[in-house]
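Before any further analysis, backbone shapes were mapped to integers, which produced the following:

***
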Amino acid sequence: MKALLMLSYASLQSIDDILPFYTHLFHGKIPSPDTLKAAKARFQSIGVADPLGSVTARQAMAIERRLNLIGGGERIKVYQATKHTSPFVHETVQQMVADGVTKLYAFPTSPLYSRTGTAAYYQSVRKALEASGANIPVVEINHWHRYPGIAEAISLRLRTALQWLSMENRSEMTVLFTAHSQPGVPEVNNEFIQAFTELAEEVALRADCKKWMLAYRSAGPAPQKWLGPDVLAMIEKVAESGGKAVVVCDLLSLTENVEAIFDCRIHCRMKAEACGLEFVSTEFLNDSADYMDALVELIHERMKQSE
């Protein structure tokens, strides 16, 4: 049996999962009561269950259904594993071995290749397979950021956001393409920066967007170096240069999650309002039909290429 393993950051099923999630995030150190209180407040403030977990689960079901419709008779099962919550990679690999999986396709759900994301996921898969003693070949599905259907789905949301701006300010707007910052200097993140830039160029081209810049969000504290410039500083720059509006379009978190909601919508909106700018952000792709269709086309194509 062939299997697709969807690799994502986390999947909280209950508000009670915040403690083990943050403990794992902090490498086994139990977070302080204040940290837990603030984290719980952030999750509760969005008014729904953790969307990263619920939407990713729906994506898995949609992708499995579509793959098996076009798969030519051989069943393909879709599994999930996350970095910081159960099911962890080693747990899912154990389940796949027990289920009799004979070929594995590893698929990170973020489009931009990074050392701390994509590469770390793949390393976890290899270690788990080695520990299990199973000889299951693995095909890594990566560098999918410029697949045409992906760029088209994002550009559709960008065109919608641009159209939403008032006619008065639309000609003086700037699009800020964002991604979660990466630790380290640019030289050690060349692959990530290149993918980020290439996807931004393709999305901007399809949306006929001439004025755009790259920016990063969620950088950690000093003294650790992180990629910049920061998106909030870039919003200030847009205002200082005489801009009238700003559009924030995240290219790393295509699936809605609490951190991206706060970074791209709440904090950026508050900064834009403080700077006197009109603001709008693009919608997340989540489990929309066009995104699911594009992912299945991509995955099916990579599966055929590996045969």
In short: The chain has two domains: 2-143+288-306, 148-281. The two ends are 14 Å apart (CA to CA). The chain has a mean pLDDT of 96. The CA atoms of residues 179 and 252 lie 5 Å apart.
